[in-house]
Amino acid sequence: MDEDDQFFIDDNSEDAEEEGSDDDTGFFPIDESIVHSTNVTTTRTAPEQLPAKFSSGISGASNNYPLDNNFEYVVLSQDEIVKYMVECIKEVNEVIKLPTTTVSLLLHSFRWDKEKLMERFNDPNHQDELFRQAHIVNPFHTDPSTEQTCAICCSTKPVNEMAGLECGHIFCTDCWRHYLTTKIIDEGIGQTIPCPAKCDILVDDRTVLALIEIPAVRRNYQHLITNSFVECNRNMRWCPGNNCTNAIKASYCDVAMVTCTTCKTSFCFQCGQSWHEPIKCKWLKRWQKKCHDDSETSNWISANTKECPKCHATIEKNGGGNRLICGNQSCKYEFCWICLGPWESHGSSWYNCNRFNEYDAKKARDDQERSRAALQRYLHYYKRYHNHHESLRLESKLLDQVQKRMESMQQQVSWIEVQFLHEACDVLRQCRQTLMYTYPFAFYLKRNNHSIIFEQNQADLEHATEELSGYLERDSTQTTNLTEMGQKVRDKYRYCSTRRKVLLDHVTEGYESDYWEYNEDV
């Protein structure tokens, strides 16, 4: 789209006259050339589909959770997203017959749920409330002001230099342009720009596009609107691939692996995260929150400090003796670090606690040991999760090395004969990402026979993955015997694929047969 083009449809066009109200003179963001475009690609998830390059997602997903093999989705470009927005607005406008800009704001208020909007609109008892909640003046009750003095700079100007909203607030075009540019460029606001008078009414698309003249600001405004449209729509997700501007649209929201046809990134449609089997979205969200908040700080404090028995101040022991004096100047209580009892009752036992087996002392020690055990358990799973995450990041550079190796090998053999290196890199990435998510999955599992089997499968896959990584890092750059290296790498990556499938099939079986029980309190 040319940056100077008018990329908003004038509602005075034939289509707008047919589908909008008679007095509708609004605009909506879209390049007319794409309204009739059919360049939309429909794809399905393909088990064991290997992408052409490393991506933030993972292909080759098994039917997990279990998954819907018939989950259909569409990959949309920026222009196609705008086209889809126009179609949504026209569909609603055929029923409610309002200006397209008003319909756009109403749909945004209802998170682009067309059925819910039309249901509420057709309820005459709640129509005023509908417009009020959407921050729009009810078009059936509009009584615009005739005042022509700018409410910002207080200057009186000709009518053709003034502009206002249905709320009646009038501003000069210079003040409008400065205000809108600030909101769009500096604050990043698009669909929900409020009236400058702070009256809670939103500025519609028609007003924005009629006032903004700078092409860069207009492009930014279109981007903000399309971004808001995708993020509000429960059946759409942005592709998380680096510098990718595509979105994915489906008929319903479900746990399914979707793959962008442009950048080949695969991700979970339900939560928008990188494809994360075997763990479910709910538990992954809890794990990520646990990793990023301060929950483990409190565990460390519980495991390595104690409270003063008198004033409850937190105390860390920094010496070898068991006699502690509270550092709180208003307390100065002396107590035993081991049993937390008063020090004076210990008599002459200066360095040894003679109340070791008392109930209170045992309870205090048990509480501390539980906190320490919880911390150690968390760190066990977190370190391994983080290690695979880092390995995945570092091994992404391996593709460049392999690519160079494949190019040099072409002097001896054909390109097809060295494709095994590329396939091995893809399998390595798949296994790494699967292993990374097995650790938060295992963290929340309760111990039973099936969790033990899962850990055995996890260990087998981890061992095979490390061997494959070693082969690719060493042999692909050092070995001169191509036949020997090819056989070794093929055997190993096929074994890794098999072990990964065994692990994921067992997890899927567990979901279907309710093998898995979870620790809700960790």
TrEMBL record:
Q: Name one GO molecular function term.
A: ubiquitin protein ligase activity
Record-given protein name? RBR-type E3 ubiquitin transferase
Looking up InterPro entries in the UniProt record yields: Ariadne, ARIH1-like_UBL, E3_UB_ligase_RBR, IBR_dom, TRIAD_supradom, Znf_RING, Znf_RING/FYVE/PHD
Give me the ranges of the annotated region Disordered: 1-25
Task: Give, as one word, the top-level EC class.
Answer: transferase
Catalytic activity reads: [E2 ubiquitin-conjugating enzyme]-S-ubiquitinyl-L-cysteine + [acceptor protein]-L-lysine = [E2 ubiquitin-conjugating enzyme]-L-cysteine + [acceptor protein]-N(6)-ubiquitinyl-L-lysine
Q: Which family does it belong to?
A: Belongs to the RBR family. Ariadne subfamily.
Which residue numbers delimit the RING-type domain?
Answer: 146-357, 150-196
| Organism in which the protein naturally occurs | Rotaria magnacalcarata
Keywords (alphabetical) are: Coiled coil, Metal-binding, Repeat, Transferase, Ubl conjugation pathway, Zinc, Zinc-finger
Ranges in a coiled coil? 392-419
Biological processes annotated in GO: protein ubiquitination
Classify the source by domain of life: Eukaryota
Q: Which SUPFAM superfamilies match?
A: RING/U-box
EC number from the UniProt entry: 2.3.2.31
